[in-house]
Amino acid sequence: MREDAQTPPAFDRRMLEALICPQSQNTLEYDAATQELISRSAALAYPIRNGIPVMLIDEARKLD
User: Fold this and answer.
1) Does a structural domain hold residue 32?
2) Where in the sequence is the domain holding 39, given as residue range(s)?
3) What is the CATH number of the domain that holds 48?
4) Average pLDDT over the chain, rounded to whole?
5) Does 42 have pLDDT greater than 70?
6) Rounded distance, CA 13 to CA 4, Å?
7) Rounded Cα distance, 46 and 57, in Å
8) Number of other residues whose CB lies within 10 A of the CB of residue 37
């Protein structure tokens, strides 16, 4: 069986153990619904594209 071409690769949650926020240097939370890594201390959400976290401050979305 082939995977649906529209389904993005899954994010490997084990990566959370190694990743930290580049701005605050604190841990991140995975939000599966938005496909983002959340830094509560920096109030930023880093996108995950094709299963790969984009850990660039300029690419992060500001949280309210």
Assistant:
1) yes
2) 13-62
3) 2.20.25.10
4) 90
5) yes
6) 21
7) 8
8) 25
